[in-house]
Every structure is written in structure tokens, then in C-alpha cells.
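Give me C-alpha cells for this 283-residue protein.
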Amino acid sequence: MYPLVSQSLSLGYDGKLIINNLDLNIPEARITVFVGSNGCGKSTLLKSFARLLKPQQGSVLLDGEAIQKQSTRQVAKKLAILPQGPAAPEGLTVYQLVQQGRYPHQGWLQQWSEEDERVVNRALKSTDMHELMHRTVDSLSGGQRQRAWIAMTLAQDTNILLLDEPTTYLDLTHQIEILDLLYDLNERENKTIVMVLHDLNLACRYAHHIVAVNNRTVYTQGLPERVITEKTVKDVFHLDCHITQDPLFGTPMCIPHGKGRHVREKAKRTDKNSQDTYEAAVA
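Here you go.
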């Protein structure tokens, strides 16, 4: 079964077409990663899957029903989205932030309950934020802040998580920390996770399914081993590279061509040889 499906989907802003006539199925209980060059439509596609962007044509199906026909509360009980670079009001604590994830489950006749408290505490513990729950969000490190936002999405208690570049602006240690957390959520709770990543090597390591977006549509999709090839990187990113195997995980590893240390050392050797020749000639 596919919990998220796009059918003949076209998206755009201000008269500019960004995604054109796209058909795409998101596999259930798997990690799907969108990759592609800047401005290709990855984030736009993610927004449409969360009903934050109305299609110009076509539709998005959430659990087999057109998402535009479902109420905001219905959608929020089925999927949660974490946009890129979210901001919290100054002074808001981690606990207060995570509480906001329960709003779709509140109503005039259903106020804060023991179930809400249980889900919030579970979300805090799942993200290792329970001991920091009384800290303000703006006092946290980048990795802690991102975990707090993920805890908020978990508090929605949805089966689907959409994350737009969840590792942006994080150092390598915190990138791995966040991706390991999402991996564990998928393994432990069978969450369907869809995210945008720029790092191809990390995308290959964590994704079950990769979707390469290019030229307003899906260039290719499938297992990382099938999708991330030298031809794909050349066509999608306009970059020459060498694809080898990650020595730890066995997944594809992209080594881009370009200038680097060995090229500089060769130039230094050439310069030194030229200097030696000149000094010998004038001696």
C-alpha cells in the first residue's frame, strides 16, 4: 500500500511551473529521500504532500483519498511536517513546543487529557529531550533544537513524517544524530518518513527509496544502488563523479571530481622542479 500518492500532479508559484504532470508513490513504513539540484522542486513537492500547496492540476492522495477534500484536522492526524528552519517564539520551553503537536487532537469537548500527556512524554523520551523539557528552545544547541522540533511532530502521533532538509546548518555529528533518530523511528515504530536531503552519501546510507527530481519530474527512483549512478549525478546535478561502495555500509558513495589537495601538491612539485632547474642554470 502507498499512503501518499501523486497523480498527474503539477505545481508552481507565480505562474512558474515547477513540477509537471508527476506520478509518484511513497512506500509505506519506509524512508524515502528526495534528492536533486537547488530549485528543482523537492521542497515544493513535500509541501504539496502536506496540503500546504494547492496543485495547479492533478491530485495528492492521502490514504487513498484526495488530500484537498480532507479537513485540516484529518490531515494533521495522519501526517506531520517539519519545514526547513522552523522558528519558535522567544521563551517557549521544549515541553510547550512539543505540546503543540497535540493541537489536532484537541477540541471544544476534548481538552488536555492523560493520553495527551502520555504521548508528549513518549515523544520527549524518543528524542532524548525529556531531561531538557524545561529549557527554552532558543537556549538549545542546533542538534537539540532540531530534536525538539522532531519531538513536536512525533506528538502529533501520525504514521507519516515529512521533513524538509532536517540536517541543514548542523555539523556532521548532529547530522548523524538526527538521521539515526529518524532511522530508529522507522525501525521501531514503522513510521513512513519522507525527507529532503542534499548529501547524497547520507541519503544512500539511510534511505530505502530515493527519488531523484529533475526537469520538473522524477528522473529516476528506487533503491539507492539503482538510483545513485555516475550518469544520474551527471544528469541531475551536472557533476562528474566516481561512484564507489561505502566501506562501512556497502551503499553507494559519491566522490565528486574537482580540484583538491593532490592537485595542489602536484602543482607544488612542478613549481619546485622549475625552481631547481632555474637555480642550476644560473649557478
